[in-house]
Amino acid sequence: MLRTPKRPSTDATIQARFSSVGHVPTRSSSTSRAAGRGEQESRIWIERLSVPGAERDAALGELHALLLRAARFEVGRRSASTPHLRGGDDDDLAQQSADDALVAILSKLGDFRGESRFTTWAYKFALYEAAAKVRKRAWQGREIPLKAEAWPLIADDHQRDAQQSIETTQTLAALGEAIERELSPHQREVLVALALNEVPIDVLAERLNTTRGALYKTLHDARQKLRGGLAARGLGVRDQGQER
């Protein structure tokens, strides 16, 4: 009895067709080529920006143009929630953001590790600078609240029963007392501004003439003191992750 030969599978047919030219295209090889191109492009950027001369000047111009596009995008996206930005404010903020991002990138070229494309890495600097500048502009001329008068008013409007409401009120009262007793004046100001009144940390850093890192440290220390003080009273407060 004769048997009909089994037809090769589609995959096998494709493999056979390409075997004659010595190459079978696969997804992994395509990905590898893309990664290789990205690494090469990044290496070229670093080389052009590292050697003084006309080539470096050209690279700086190209990079600044890329950063400006990124900054304009971010300023435009965020300005929708800050309608008081008028006239040429948007473009002025974008220009400043691109300028500052370029300075920051050049100071940190040695930190680039090639974990992403150079342009992707650089793009983030522009987004960060633009976001920070829009936040600062939004707070321009506004007084930063550093006092905790409003703290006792914070409560969960969705308490499920009276007992929970009483417990929340007691916890808030203990928290207010701990803020006054456990924290230094500076720690109180930073905690209230950042965690209660939602002042952007870069805005507060500018007003207090300090750095984001110093404020993060102050906020961390303040929270640690509060946790210790509340724990001594048999209470606890969930960390809301207000650091920005």
Describe the 3D structure.
The chain is mainly α. The protein has two domains: 35-139, RNA polymerase sigma factor, region 2, helix turn helix motif (Rna Polymerase Sigma Factor, Chain: A), CATH 1.10.1740.10; 151-232, Arc Repressor Mutant, subunit A. 66% of the residues lie in helices and 0% in strands. It contains nine helices and no strands. It has helices at 10-19, 27-50, 54-79, 89-107, 118-139, 162-182, 185-196, 201-207, 212-232. Helix 2 packs across helix 3 (54-79) and helix 7 (185-196) crosses helix 9 (212-232). The radius of gyration is 28 Å and the shape is elongated. The model is unreliable at 1-27, 152-157 and 239-244 (pLDDT under 50).
